[in-house]
Amino acid sequence: MQAADKDVGDLDVAIIGAGHNGLTCAAYLARAGLKVALFERRGIAGGAAVTEEFVPGFRNSTASYTVSLLHPKIIRELHLAEHGLRVVERPLQNYLARDSGPGLRMGPTLAATRRNVAAESPRDADRLEAFHQQLEAAVSLLKDLLLRTPPTDLRRYGDLWSLLSTGRRFRALSLEAQRTVHEVFTRSAGDYLDGWFESDGIKAAYGFDSIVGNYASPYTPGSAYVLLHHAFGEVNGKPGLWGHAIGGMGAITQALAREAQAHGARIELEAPVRHIIVESGRAQGIELADGRIVRARRIAANVNPRFLYLDLLSSGDVPTEIRERMQRYRCGSASFRMNVALSELPRLDDSGAAGSDLHRSGILFAPSLAYMDRAHADARLSGMSRSPVVEMLIPSTVDDTLAPPGAHVASLFCQHFAPTLPDGRSWHEARDEATALILDTVNRHAPNFRASLLGHSALSPLDLEEKFGLPSGDIFHGALGLDQLWAARPLLGQADYRSGIPGLYLCGSGAHPGGGVSGVPGHNCARAMLRGKAL
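^ thats the sequence. predicted structure below, dont judge the formating
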């Protein structure tokens, strides 16, 4: 990365935040010949997709931790493989641990999952293929919308045509597929899965995706869409899979940074932006925390929409109605993120030999939808789940660059921990209590876990906000509800990556299609800034 100069001079585009979407946007704009600079408040580029040492000798993905949603078009066009990115798929997709006895293995193929499910419910095994076919019909429609700019003003011919085009795609689906799309947009994941399956295990294995980063019960209406959102992805051309980035998630953002810099983009670290300058009704530049003024013809903000409208812009530059709506913009994913250093692999009931496929999967500690529902209710009442939902990944089983020989690192992604504690405590005070609950939950299933713990890092919802700029710890930059999706993300009338202030754009996950390490908002924003030039 380049060190900050005293004066960066005028720019075509200044990008606030060097997270993965900001870097994606910068790479496309720089490739088009524009003079681009990114301004990142941390000392490392990558936003929430970074790899850092958290215990001496142990490195891991600090926040975001697994790969699937990164769009293949972006991987291909920005030459991420040539810049060093390598993603390996999980040999076993997920393993659902249970309170006693063997867990449920999911994958690596549908046929393998069917065999495993048949042992406890032949009926559910027989329904698996039809379930996937229905879900894939909905995924196919929605994947087609990912790279399309949502309509914002139906008085404009282009937006009206976009809406009609989307309607035609929906109409082209079979009636059964149309019903599925309607169901997953409106129903809870729990109701949807209860209608398909009888086994607690298979429902929990699918239902987990409905609460990842979502402060909700699997029985909350609309949670079925969050399940669908996590089904968009692929790894190495294989749809529906999840994988590990060798070198951690920072390998993605470092590859993006190399592509952007190869085309002349500048990345300034430790350069927080204090204010967006609006003059004569147009965004004209930014003011950095060190007092420097950077002039730019256009600004792209890779930040949460609430932070953009309420903090970076002066109140006089934002219409009152927009400010009031942004104050009601829903954020808060109730997520708690840990990295742990281990002297040995966790010993689960049927994990077999060290380094088995089980250890290279996503290991879920949430045996039923009822367990997840109680975790949500607990957090609503007391601020944190006493038996939290935990997903554990152990990337060192496929990547020996992360830990010393014989040792391991594990990512723990945990729900539900309320953004604001009802007893008035700060999360800085309550962090250790939550950490203990999480470690105890894993240790119940892997009795050697605590004894093998060499060190850890812990990020509460407040830590995620302070460290990564995620208001209320929201990993998606805004809840994935019908009121904040597609043409309504972040607001009706502003879903085309334009903020409503000429010259100011939104390129982060608060724009369509939402959260996850996809790069799609950055790609689409760059296209909008290039005034429709094909990417």
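Confidence is low (pLDDT under 50) at residues 1-8.
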